[in-house]
Amino acid sequence: MSTATGTATENTVTLAKVGQNAPDFNLPSTKNIETLKENVKLADYKGKWLILLFYPLDFTALCPTELTHFSDRIDEVNGLGAEVLGVSTDSVHSHRAWIKTPRDKNGIEGLKFPLASDAGGRLSRTYNILVEEPNIALRGLYIINPDGVLQYAVVHAINIGRSVDETLRVLQAMQTGGFCAADWKPGQATL
Question: Whole-prediction pTM value?
Answer without folding.
Answer: 0.92
